[in-house]
Amino acid sequence: MKAPYLTAALAAVSLSAAQLSFAQAQVVDTQPIVDNRSPAISQSVPVSNSSADSQAQVFYQLQQLQQEVLQLRGLVEEQAFELKRFKQQRMDDYLDLDRRLASLAKTAPTSTPGSLVSAPSTVANVASAATQAVSAGDLQDYRAAIDLVLHKQDYDQGEKLLLQHIANYPNSKFLPNSQYWLGQIYLIKRDYEQAKQRFLIVKEQFPDHDKYIDAVFKLGKAYHLLGDNASAVPHLQQAAKDSGSVGKLAEAYLAKNFR
Amino acid sequence: MMTIHQHIKSLAVLILLSITALAKAELTIEITQGVDNPAKIAIVPFSWSGSGPLPENVANIVSADLLRSGQFDPIPEGDMLSFPQDESEVLFRDWARLGTEFLLIGSIKPSLSAMGTNGYRLDFQLFDVLGQRRMLNKNVTVTSKGLRDMAHFASDEVYEAVTGIRGAFSTKMIYVEANRNRQGKLIYRLNRADVDGARPSLLLESDDPLLSPAWSPDGKQVAYVSFETGRPAIFRQELATSKREQLTNFKGLNGAPAWSPDGKKLAITLSKDGNPEIYVLEIASHRLTRVTNHFAIDTEPSWTADGKGIIFTSNRGGKPQIYQKTLASSRVERLTFLGDYNARARLSPDGKTLVVVNRQNGVFHIAAQDLETGDLRILTETRLDESPTIAPNGAMLMYATRHRGKGILAAVSLDAGVKFRLPSQRGDVREPAWSPYFN
């Protein structure tokens, strides 16, 4: 018999609260009370041993909880948004940095075609090195660039394509190859400083790569051509220990220039 | 609290409206800001081969239209060296000397339609002065009362030829006007007018507040909220016949109708189940579907262009912000994060820009948010700006504001480059709704 009174009291509270324009006040008179008055009350609160006071208490706590949930939801939404934004920002910053580095590497090329590329390894073993799945664009762009360098000897265009390839596919399997061939192009263009940078990248970042020993040899060569014999000799000697063709080339280079 | 406040505010402002004047209710235009480099255009007064003077100066209306777009700078008639009526009379060198980039010429003659009614025909040509070539050669025939339509048609054509964007000068707007009658009682009028404010016509007059007018996508009907039954109820009205239908009569709030892009449904806000929630009402069957279900307030629905989603204001995150609900998946996504208040969202026709009433650091603005980048551009400055409505070409938006203590309409381009006011000569004007294209 108490239920109707409680309902009336609750309705009055919720009404006045609504007039005070508290969002959560209106919430309460949604489903449970309006649609299904007395049963909702008896379900939600043990009517038998509660007074109107404790009903109001529960109601007040419910309001507080709802307000709390609203605020928490707002926080979660905002933090999810921030997180998304930071991820995007990180990606953008990385791409920007990469672009800057690439354009930095492109500046000041002294273009005089010099000695031919001595290619210790071929495109074929480059392709075989790509054991993992490779995107079609990646492979295609890389092949196009290498074709220009090795077959057409168009070093300006080849340089451009290789830089593009590095910028577009920073995680490419062919990244060490691209760096190596860029170094080669700079050697030919007698831009030894840039050549040194590229070979250093291969040497330091890809010690397990097929091109590693080639890069070490060319790095030695670049140092030599820069006049830094102290740095050149250890690299050339390291390369000369190689059992393959690079070793022979390095040995010959050492014999010719340092003995 | 803010959101409810806002509902109350709508009412309060209406009740506070208080200016009486007996002048004819026409809106006049005042340009407050233009783009840096508007194209110079010469609009030569059109010749008229009929008898008696024409009731409207068509070339002047074209000139005003183009000036208002902010993209054009019409040169004064007094600077013109000649008034060519035909391509053969055009001396490009003279116009180039005036710095004119474009030249519009035309001639009007009487036209007798098949029905035997009198009308007018305009033949007009647009020239590119620097390229010395004709860009347009068109004609338009109108009825005896259609000279303004004729002018707006020419403006649309010129605007599109030069900017590549379809013109919206021929579109209309509806707005609510409140005036005190001689007994000092507020009378509410729902008016329809050209977007330059000319030719206002009364759609509905009521002693009780009218709110939230909205165009149907075909431009043949409007929906609005009227208090004539003693509480807010949503009505729709056919423009051609003035036939009205009351669509809702629920307890509590019945508000903010928004037509679905197919024109078959209305998204509305109802508080019949306790607190404001979004519902979709099928107009033909009167079938009601509940869209949102949250103990927070959900209100001010509008549709995405494909009709698959509803954008609404909700304080479910503790503050009013804009959310989008995809109807098929029921997925709700929050769209706005800048500012502690974002409400009354409208999407641009291309769906790329969200226009909102935004508050940052305690100041209200109308702002445009690029949905892809999230960048927010503040379009207006005063805290009184509200009810933004976007032109169907997405180039401009109109909003209600207050100027010298009076409710007026103003417009701003979506790039914030051009602003103008349409001060009303009497009463308070608010809640504008820009029509869709009519064809």
Describe this structure in words.
The complex is a heterodimer of chains A (259) and B (439). Chain A has 259 residues and is mostly helical. Chain A has two domains: 2-81, no CATH class; 124-258, Alpha Horseshoe (Serine Threonine Protein Phosphatase 5, Tetratricopeptide repeat). Chain A has helices at residues 2-19, 23-28, 31-35, 37-44, 52-106, 123-129, 136-152, 155-168, 175-188, 192-205, 212-225, 229-240, 245-258. Chain A is elongated and about 105 Å long. Chain A is 76% helix and 0% strand. Chain B has 439 residues and is mostly beta strands. Chain B has two domains: 2-31 and 171-434, Neuraminidase; 37-163, TolB, N-terminal domain (Rossmann fold), CATH 3.40.50. In chain B, the strands form seven sheets. In chain B, strands 2, 3, 4, 5, 6 and 7 form a six-stranded mixed β-sheet that branches. In chain B, helix 2 (58-69) packs across helix 4. Chain B starts with a helix and ends in a 5-residue tail after the last strand. The A-B interface holds A 21-24, 26-31, 34-35, 66-67, 70-71, 73-74, 77-78, 81, 85 and B 1, 3-5, 8, 271, 273-276, 295-297, 315-319, 321, 334, 337, 374.
Measured on Cα atoms, how large is the radius of gyration of chain B?
A: 23 Å
Please tell me the CATH architecture of the largest domain in chain B by its name. Answer: 6 Propeller
Q: In oligomeric terms, what are we looking at?
A: heterodimer
> Low-confidence stretches of chain A at least 5 residues in length (pLDDT < 50)?
1-47, 110-133
> What amount of the residues of chain A lies in strands?
under 5%
